[in-house]
Amino acid sequence: MSDAERVIVRDSVTELDDSARGRVVLAPSHGGRYAAALAARCGVSAVILSDAGIGRNGAGVAGLALLDDLGVPAAAVDVWSARIADGKDCLRRGVLSTVNARGRALGIDAGMAVAEALARLAAAALPPSPPPPALADSRREIAEAGTKGVRVLALDSNALVRPEDLGQVIVTGSHGALLGGRPETAVKVAVFAALYNDAGIGIDEAGLGRLAPLAARGIAAATVSAASAEIGDAASTYHDGIVSAVNAVAARLGGAVGQRARELVARLVAARAREISG
Question: Is the pTM of this model over 0.85?
Answer without folding.
Answer: yes
